[in-house]
């Protein structure tokens, strides 16, 4: 019996908190909206990176690449 009374009192705390938050939100005055910050445009475009021949890889092949795919000859497994 004591547990039920204890839980009834403890479970009222979130309800009291919710009532307090709603009361505070209703009482608060709305703030005026802040104007949007204007970002200055850059004077010129950023320089483009130079292509590096070492980092270029040949295109990858695959069943849907449209290119010619070399196939290995099939192997026969025994055993």
Average pLDDT figure: 79
- In percent terms, what proportion of residues is strand? under 5%
| Unreliable residue stretches | none
Instruction: Characterize the largest beta sheet: strand count, sense, and whether it forms a barrel.
Output: none
Terminal residue distance: 76 Å
Rg from Cα: 35 Å
| Helix fraction bin | 25-40%
Shape: flat
From the structure provided, what is the oligomeric state, counting identical versus distinct chains?
Answer: single chain
Number of helices: 2
Would you list the SSEs in sequence order as H and E?
HH
What's the total number of strands? 0
Class derived from helix and strand content? mainly alpha
Structure description:
Helices cover about 30% and strands about 0% of the residues. It has two helices and no strands. It has helices at about 1-10, 10-25. The longest helix has 16 residues, at about 10-25.
A few lines on this structure:
This protein has 79 residues and is an all-alpha fold.
């Amino acid at each position: 019996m004591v547990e039920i009374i204890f839980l009834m009192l403890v479970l009222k705390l979130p309800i009291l908190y919710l009532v307090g938050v709603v009361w505070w939100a209703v009482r608060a005055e709305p703030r005026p909206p802040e104007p949007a910050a204007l970002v200055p445009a850059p004077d010129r475009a950023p320089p483009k990176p130079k292509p590096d021949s070492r980092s270029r890889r040949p295109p990858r092949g695959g069943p849907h690449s449209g290119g010619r795919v070399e196939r290995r000859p099939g192997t026969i497994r025994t055993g």
